[in-house]
Amino acid sequence: xxxxxxxxxxxxxxxxxxxxxxxxxxxxxxxxxxxxxxxxxxxxxxxxxxxxxxxxxxxxxxxxxxxxxxxxxxxxxxxxxxxxxxxxxxxxxxxxxxxxxxxxxxxxxxxxxxxxxxxxxxxxxxxxxxxxxxxxxxxxxxxxxxxxxxxxxxxxxxxxxxxxxxxxxxxxxxxxxxxxxxxxxxxxxxxxxxxxxxxxxxxxxxxxxxxxxxxxxxxxxxxxxxxxxxxxxxxxxxxxxxxxxxxxx
Length: 249
Known about the structure:
By secondary structure, this protein is α+β, with helices and mostly antiparallel strands. It has helices at about 5-35, 95-105, 170-175, 180-185, 215-225, 230-240, and strands at about 50, 60-65, 70-75, 80-85, 90, 105-110, 110-115, 130-135, 140-150, 155-160, 165-170, 190-200, 205-215. The protein is built from 6 helices and 13 strands. Strand 9 (about 140-150) and strand 10 form a beta hairpin. Helix 1 (about 5-35) runs antiparallel to helix 6.
């Protein structure tokens, strides 16, 4: 393959990459302004407290997907280090777990509906997820997680033993739902891909590289940048230059 053609494909790939990155940045901005950054209606004095725990008192977190009957559990060992207990023993990403625990310790709501008789409209008659927070002294707090509101910006939750239904921002709830994906030390993906590089002699060569990431959204973004044009380009270079390459797929 001529070098000019190679550069043309690289330029096309770069343009597509920049477009995807721009979309990704816009989505991040929406999440920040819509969910993370508190607005005027969510000033401290206006927030409704679901519970207020001491992060130092939390010794375990267990999240169960009740529909798929899958459970993730992290525990703090005797040395104060967080470890994964379920689905299989492993090290935890301690810094991320600690941030999650800080958020779980104090959960606030946007709105509350007191003394709800029928929990079905909120998805809480049979909760979709259940989060159990183990505390020192054998105490436990349980958060039942139901459906999202019609706008998809918040989720209905209920503290076990409390007749009130709370509407909580999706940011914290989504981290609880997917906490295994985001917070344990297990790689969700370890995938081999190939890139075309220009070596010191001015020759193009195909080299393998690996994707390691435990953030599914980032993984899919990276895969999107690699697939399509890039994969076709690699195959063309390998065939046209008779370069050694094992299965591109």
